[in-house]
Amino acid sequence: ENRCFVHKYTFANKNVYYSGNKCEKVFSNQGADAVKGRNLSVKKYGLLFNRKNKTEEGTLTVGIPRGLNMYENYPFWHALFNECGIKTVLSDPSTFYNYEAGVHSVMSDNICFPAKLMHSHIYDLVRKKVDRIFMPYVIFEKKEREESANSYNCPIVSGYAEVIKSAVHPNIPVDFPIITFQDTELLTKQCVEYLQQFGIEKQTIKKAVREALVAQINYERELRELNRQVYARNKAEGKLTVLLAGRPYHTDPLIQHKLSDMISGMGVTVITEDIVRDEDVGDIDKTFLVSQWAYINRIFYAAQWVARQGNDVHFVQMTSFGCGPDAFLIDEIKSILGRHGKSLTLLKIDDVNNIGSIKLRVRSVIESLKFNHSASRKMEPFLTTKKFTVEDKKRTILAPYFTDYISPLVPPVLKLAGYNVEVLPESNNDSAECGLMYANNEVCYPATLVVGDLIKALKSGKYDVSQTAVIITQTGGQCRASNYIALIRKGIIEAGYPEVPVVSLAMGDSMMNEQPGFTINWMKIMPIALAAILFSDCIAKFYHASAVREKSKGEARRLRQHYLDEAGKLILANKAGALYKLVETAAKHFNEIIIPADNLPKVGLVGEIYLKFNGFANKNVAEWLIERKIEVMPPLLTGFFTQVFVNRKENLRTHIEKGGMPEFVYDLFYKLVQKKIEKVNRLASNFRYFTPIANIFEEAEHGKEIVTLSAQFGEGWLLPAEIVSFAKEGTNNVISLQPFGCIANHIVSKGVEKKIKTLYPQMNLLSLDYDSGVSEVNIINRLLLLTNSLK
C-alpha cells in the first residue's frame, strides 16, 4: 500500500542504489547475489489463516476479526464452526488505510496498537454484511506447563468485545461467549451453550469440539516441528538464527511492520517462540516473575531456550507501546539472557508507519552478531531473596501504606495471627523517586510507590535488615498487581538486601512464593478481620460526610483518628462484638460535630483500588473536593472482598471453573457475612448522613448493565457497578482514578464510558490518569472543569 517516491542512482560501474523506498520488496540495494534467510513468521501467518470452509452456503455467516486472540485460536474456531455447518468470514488482512478509518472509535489513547487495530477489522466485517461477529471472551488459554501459576489472557485480549459493543456499536450482534482452554470438559460445555442457540444438536457440537481441538493441536504441532527443523538445519550449516518473539498477534505484518521480512532479508533465518510449545526448558523457578499470563509464559520460556543455545541464536522481542504485562516481562528476559552471557534486543512498535529507526537498529544488531558469533560467554547465578522460614516469624514485617482507614488496623489483625507487622508512613516524592530507580519505569504507578516505600525504608537505617521482612498483598487474577511481588523481590536484590524475605499475603495458593514460615489460620481471624473492614468503611463514610459539614475545622479528622485508635485496641483483644458496638458510638459522636446541610453537591470516587484509596497517589483528590464544600462519596473495601461470592457463582454458571467446595458452604458463609453487613448498616444509621453498604448481589445487577460479570480483572465489573449505583442514587458526578496505562481500566472504565453515558446520560464521568510524572496543575485544572459544572 506504500507509494514511495524512489530515487535511482546508477554508478559508473553499473551498480544501482535506490533511496526513498520504505521497504526493499521492489527496490532492493542488497545486490543480485543476496541470499534471504527463511522466515517462519510469514509461514506461521499462512498456516494460521489459510483454511477453507466446508460450505459457502451456510445457514449462518459468522464474521471473525483478524486480531488479538484469533492469532492463537483461529484453527479451533474455524474447525468448530465448519463442523457445525456455519460459514466463517475472516476480516481482510490489516492495512494502515483501514486502521486510520477505524481509529476514531478508540476509547483509550494509550491502549496498545493491536487493540486499536481491532476497530478496523470490525468495520470490515460490517461491510461484509456478516450475520454475527464473533469475539470470544477467552479468560484462560491452554496451560502449556503445569508449573506455571496460570494461563490467563491479558484483560484487553479477553474483554475487548465489551469495548467494541460500547464504542463501535456495529448494529450486528457481537457474540462473546466466556471461554477457557484450560479444561476440555468446561470448554465443551461453553461451546454447547453458545451454539445451541442456533438450533445445532448437542452431539453435533460435542463432535465439532473434538474435531476443533484436533485442528488446533495439529496446527501447533506443525508450527513447533517446523521451527525445530529449520533451526536444526541452520545450526548444522553454522548460520545465524534470530528467534523473533512476541504475542501471537505480532504475527500480523502490519503490527510488526514486517520486521521478520526485514531480518530475513539480511540473510538471517527467523524462527518464532512456538519452538518451545510443550517443551521442558527447565529452571522455571529461577525467576521473579509470577507466570500468570499464557502469552508471556511462552515468550519467557523461549528466552530460557535461547539462553541455553549457542551464539548462533539471538533473541529479539517485539513489544507494543502501552503493553502492561511486558513491563514485568522485559526485565526478566534481560536477566535470563544476561546470566547466560547474551543480550536482549527489544523493539517497541506502535502505529507509527515510519520504521526507519527500527530498520537501522535491526541492521546494526545483525551485523554485530555476525562478528560475535564465536565469542565466549560467562554464566552467572540467579540471585533471589531469602525464604521466609519458621525461624523468621519473629522478624518485623514492613507493609506499604495503603489508606487512612484500613492501614492502621492491619498490624493488630496480623498480630492476632502471630506476626509483627509495621505499616510504613504514607508515600512521598522520595518514594516515587526510589521506585523509579528499582522498578521498570513502565509499571503502573502504585507499583512504583510500593517498591519505593519498601526499599526506602530498608535504606533508612531504621531497621535491622537481618530481622526485617516485607509483605505485599496478592489477589491473583489477570491484573498486573499479582506481579508486584516480582518487582519487590527484584528491587530488594538490586538494592543489596538479599537477606530480607518477601512475604505474599494471599488467600490462594497459586502465587508461587515459597514462604513456609508464613501461614495464617484465616478461619480464626476472619471474624475480627471482617469486623475491621466493615468498621473502616463506616469510619470512611462518617468522615467524608462530616468533614464537609464540621462545625470546627479539623474536628472530623481528629474524631476519625480517635476511633481508629480505639478500634486497634479492640482488635488486639479480639473483641469483634465490641468493635461493632464502637460503630454505633462513633455514629452518634460524628453527629455532634456537624452542621446539618442536606443539599451539598456530591462526587463519587471509583477506580483502581490503590489509587482511589491512597491520598498521596491521587494528589489528595478527596480533600481538595472537601475544601470546596463538595461531599465525597468515598470508595469502600467491603465490595472488593465480597465480590468473591458473585464471582464464584458467575464462574460456575459460565463454566470457567468447577465446583470444588460445596455450594451450600459458600452460601452459608455469604449469609454470615451479609448478616454482619446488615448489622453494621443498622448501627451506622445512627449517623444522619450514613448511606448503607450495598448488597454485593444488587451491585452485580447494576454491573451487568454495562459489562459481563466475567470481567473480574482489576476492579472488574465492580467499577462500572459503582458508577451505576451512584447514578441510581442521584450522584451524577463521578471521578474514575486510574494508573496511566492500566490494562483493566481500558476495558471496565474508559472502554465502556460511551455505554455508561448512553444508559445514564445525566452521568458526568471524569477519568484521571496518574503516574509519577503527572502534573498536579493538570489534575486540578481537570477537577475544576468538573466542579465548576456543579455550581
From TrEMBL:
Catalytic activity, EC: 3.-.-.-
Keywords carried by this UniProt record: Hydrolase
Membrane spanning residue stretches: none
A matching Pfam family: DUF2229
UniProt entry tagged with the keyword Ligase: no
Any one GO MF annotation of this record: hydrolase activity
Domain spans labelled DUF2229: 61-276
Top-level EC class: hydrolase
InterPro entries found in the cross-reference section: CoA_activase_DUF2229, Dehydratase_Activator_Redct
PANTHER family: ACTIVATOR OF 2-HYDROXYACYL-COA DEHYDRATASE, BIFUNCTIONAL PROTEIN [INCLUDES 2-HYDROXYACYL-COA DEHYDRATASE (N-TER) AND ITS ACTIVATOR DOMAIN (C_TERM)-RELATED
The protein's name in its UniProt record: 2-hydroxyisocaproyl-CoA dehydratase activator
Species for this entry: termite gut metagenome
Lineage: unclassified sequences, metagenomes, organismal metagenomes
